[in-house]
Specification:
This protein folds into three domains: 36-138, Immunoglobulin-like; 147-388, Neutral Protease, domain 2, CATH 1.10.390; 434-486 and 508-578, no CATH class. Helix content is 37%, strand content 15%. It has 15 helices and 13 strands. The strands form three sheets. Strands 3, 4, 6, 7 and 8 form a five-stranded antiparallel sheet that branches. Strands 9-10-11-13-12 form a five-stranded mixed sheet.
């Protein structure tokens, strides 16, 4: 083998060793050597319902452990909160063992089955910190030694009974779930736990402080657990409380994505699925029915009354209403309704209207009328069919539409504003044509010299031809274009100079002729006898020079508005308009 081959083989072996051993060398365990603090053991012991004891041991190779902190999170779904506790270390050392006693009594009570997560954080004298990974567990009722059996997604727990009791319990619970699933349109989706207590006293010991005395069972859908008490295999609670609480668990799994159902429907559905209904519940309902003292659904939509008798009535009438719904709309429609309740985009009232055709108020009113009770709706609110319900709402929405006046006003403006604009343009063009005719009428009476001066004066602004349309030489001014002298004319002798063309007119002063043409001014013929011809009149150049002014001053004749006569007023001077 050549030296080159040996060299390449060595590089290949080095690459393979690095590929397989580098991840091990730089693993978390390898870096753990850089952390001088290590937790050697930790434990948690539940003493339901009073406390939980946490213990932890640790060692430190860089200094003495001086501080320890424990973080505890109780995940009581749908909410959870975290507690932080500093544990005092009286004697800091390299090896320590610390304990924390967590009080869970009173207001700190947590239901059996609550998930708990915790972790420790340590600090030593060398300013090193160590955060231990989290551990979790579930609280249980440690007062009893529980036995368990499972089938599918169902697990049952009992104590102080033989195994055959557990087997009978599991079978009856599983049969109950199958019956419930047929009525609700679906079964279990996640594992559940059913805890069965041997007495009512044991059962109430598992409830939170302040719980109602009349509670015979309890379900916690967020924890996927239920609690009941069963004395023996012939106890009515196996036919009443067990299917009742299991209905809650199945129902809440089927609508987990939707919004919360009202209490009356949740509890009414659970009572409806019971295999046994005590006569006392039917009697309590009939009693309230005869006295017309049924509770309004709005009063039992967010919890039941704390009074035992009123709570019992709430269960009774909720059961009767749900049974009425199944009878009136059919089981298939009710399955579809429960399936629709899993939609997070709609609430209970919208689901009722969409699937069953009635909202809660109309459903309650129809149920009350069926029972011979007074109506709770006004006559104009009554809707015999779902179609009528939609029709009564349409006029209400139209009468309260505040956008209609806005659109009507906007449409009117879009129609009338263009018409007004067209009229304004036509009026403006007509006046422009009148001004042009007015200018053309006076143009033949201007002398050549005056025309030159006027053209020079207008050269600063515009082309004179733009404002002077051609007119016939023999045109006469219109009556609206008559002008008056600045002062009253004195009586004069008849002027016969017209017979002698060589003679000139006497010098007279007249007001400048009004003009409506932009940036224009021109001379005005003097007053003369009616027999005088405008073609024979020629203003002198000196008069034009005096009225127009010099080129430097830029003075011009003062314009007046069209169709106005200026009587007995003095001559004014005004700068030309721009």
């Amino acid at each position: 083998m050549s030296l080159r081959s040996v060299y390449l083989l060595g590089l290949l072996l080095l690459f393979l060793c690095g590929f397989f051993f580098l991840p091990v060398a730089f693993s978390a365990k390898a870096f753990a050597a850089s952390d001088p603090i290590a937790v050697t053991s930790q434990s948690d012991v539940v003493h339901f319902p009073g406390s939980i004891d946490f213990a932890m041991s640790a060692r430190d190779t860089a200094g003495s452990i001086t501080e320890a902190t424990i973080y505890i999170s109780y995940k009581d779904s749908p909410s959870s909160f975290e507690k932080e506790h500093s544990v005092i270390i009286n004697r800091p050392a390299r090896i320590v063992k610390v304990n924390w006693h967590e009080d869970t009594s009173g207001n700190n009570f947590h239901t059996p089955g609550t998930p708990v997560e915790y972790n420790w954080v340590l600090h030593d004298s060398a300013n090193n910190y160590h955060t231990e990974s989290s551990k979790d567990f579930k609280t249980i009722d440690t007062r009893y030694s529980w036995q368990h059996l499972s089938q599918g997604l169902l697990q049952v727990g009992w104590y102080n009974r033989p195994p055959n009791f557990g087997q009978a319990l599991l079978k009856r619970a599983n049969d109950s779930i199958n019956q419930i699933s047929q009525k609700l349109g679906g079964g279990l989706l996640h594992p559940i736990n059913l805890w069965v207590y041997a007495s009512n006293q044991d059962f109430h010991g598992a409830l939170a402080p302040g719980s109602y005395e009349w509670v015979g069972g309890e379900a916690h859908p967020a924890l996927e657990e239920a609690f009941i008490s069963v004395i023996d295999e012939n106890d009515d609670t196996l036919l009443r409380d067990m299917p009742h609480e299991l209905t809650h668990l199945v129902f809440h799994q089927l609508i987990a994505q939707g919004q919360q159902a009202p209490t009356w429907f949740d509890e009414g559905l659970a009572v409806y699925n019971q295999l046994f209904h005590e006569p006392e519940m039917r009697f309590r309902f009939e009693q309230a029915l005869s006295k017309k003292l049924l509770l309004h659904l709005n009063d039992i939509s967010d919890g039941f009354p704390s009074d035992g008798d009123q709570a019992y009535l709430a269960y009774a009438q909720s059961w009767d209403l749900v049974a009425y719904m199944y009878t009136t709309f059919g089981q298939d429609k009710m399955k579809l309704f429960i399936k629709k309740m899993n939609d997070p985009e709609s609430d209970f009232n919208e689901d009722l209207t969409l699937v069953l055709g009635q909202d809660q108020d109309h459903l309650e009113n129809q149920w009350l009328l069926h029972l011979g009770q007074p109506s709770i709706l006004r006559p104009d609110q009554l809707t015999p069919t779902p179609q009528a319900l939609v029709q009564t709402r349409q006029p209400q929405s139209s009468t309260t539409d505040s956008t209609a006046p806005v659109f009507i006003t906007a449409g009117s403006l879009l129609i009338f504003l263009p018409i007004i604009g067209i009229v304004v343009i036509l009026v403006y063009q007509r006046r422009k044509r009148q001004q042009a005719l007015f200018v053309g009428t006076a143009q033949p009476f201007l002398s050549p010299g005056q025309g030159m001066i006027q053209a020079h004066n207008n050269a600063y602004f515009a082309v004179p031809s733009q404002y002077r349309p051609s007119m016939p030489v023999n045109a006469f001014p219109t009556p609206h274009q008559s002008v008056y002298p600045a002062q009253s004319a004195q009586p004069q002798q008849p002027d016969l100079s017209w017979q002698n063309p060589a003679s000139s007119y006497p010098l007279q002063t007249y007001m400048q002729f009004p003009s409506f043409a932009p940036e224009q001014a021109f001379g005005v013929p003097p007053a003369s006898s009616p027999t005088q011809s405008f073609a024979q009149w020629q203003p002198e150049a000196s008069i034009l020079s005096k009225e127009v002014g010099s080129e430097n001053t830029g003075s011009m004749q003062v314009p007046f508005g069209p169709f106005k006569e200026n009587v007995n007023q003095q001559t004014q001077k005004k700068a030309p308009q721009e």
